[in-house]
Design brief:
The chain has about 250 residues and is an alpha/beta fold. It is about 40% helix and about 15% strand. The structure holds NADP nicotinamide-adenine-dinucleotide phosphate (NAP). NADP nicotinamide-adenine-dinucleotide phosphate (NAP) binds next to strand 4.
Length: about 250
């Protein structure tokens, strides 16, 4: 049995990571801004962070810091280095190095920081989780006409499958960058929207809109996809049936 710290352990990914680690018999410490006894804002650090990393066998870094992620990673890495953390696992996104989105650039910078930190590390990149695609579609469906990015596809992945993989990796020695993980199907946003409309019984007119810019170009070329690593099993339709079903 190991002691494993999960940062962002209350989030979409962090929660099932903690559940899986506990089911596998590990002792889990959960860190987030609102989860005592390790209620830490990683952008600020502090003595609780030192205490959280003290004596752990691994840190699974699942927090999602929208602003200040690089600074938080730098601070956390220096504490982990001082504390001699034997294994740091980082979850990243397929295409962070290929799509010039600000959030992706930050994540890619954090990846590079971890590689250079001197802490033994494992890095897993995945495609988007079903939950994120669902939230996107719910947002796009607010007006009566759903405007969808033309020719953009996605490969959503069941978050519990990503969590199981991370938990498995956390119990092994540091592995560097491991193989990417993608969902089982690649679907256009229009196909995803149809699936959501069918599952919810809603009606919306769908209009595909071409967008300008290099981010859109990257998405259109599928640089955020991992077709050769379509290892996830749960499809978006199955996810919707479970999430929205009776
Ligand atoms: N969503 C996706 O489709 C996807 C795909 C691939 C990779 N990822 C990566 O997976 C990771 C987790 O994403 P997620 O979707 O699970 O995020 P999420 O649901 O938004 O959860 C974020 C977690 O981070 C904690 N957190 C946020 N700011 C923090 C701070 N300043 N200090 C400490 N904890 C903080 C939150 O708890 P508090 O609010 O209590 O602090 C929460 O536990 C991210 O690195 C993301 O880039 C996500």
């Amino acid at each position: 049995m190991s002691t494993i710290l999960v940062t962002g352990g209350t989030g979409t990914l962090g929660r099932p990571v903690c559940e899986r680690l506990r089911a596998d018999g590990h002792e889990v410490r959960v860190l987030s801004r609102h989860s005592p006894p390790y209620a830490v804002d990683l952008r600020q650090g502090g003595p609780l962070l030192d205490r959280a990393v003290d004596g752990v066998d691994a840190v699974v870094h699942c927090s999602n810091i929208l602003r200040g992620d690089k600074e938080a990673a730098r601070r956390a890495a220096s504490i982990r280095r001082r504390a001699g953390v034997p294994h740091l696992l980082y979850i990243s996104i397929v295409g962070v190095d290929r799509i010039p989105l600000g959030y992706y650039r930050n994540k890619y910078a954090v990846e590079r920081m971890i590689r250079a930190s001197g802490i033994p590390w494992t890095l897993l990149r995945t495609t988007q989780f079903h939950d994120l695609v669902l939230r996107l579609l719910q947002g796009l469906a607010k007006p009566p006409v759903m405007l969808l990015p033309k020719d953009v596809r996605d490969q959503p992945l069941e978050v519990t499958e990503a969590a199981a993989r991370l938990a498995e990796l956390a119990a092994r020695p540091p592995a560097g960058r491991v193989e990417d993980m993608g969902g089982p199907e690649i679907l256009t946003f229009t196909e995803l929207a149809h699936a959501w409309l069918r599952a919810t019984g809603r009606r919306r007119r769908l209009v595909e809109v071409p967008l300008p810019g290099r981010v859109y170009q990257g998405l259109r070329h599928g640089r955020h996809l991992a077709p050769e690593r379509a290892v996830g099993r749960v499809t978006f339709e199955e996810f919707l049936a479970r999430r929205l079903g009776p």
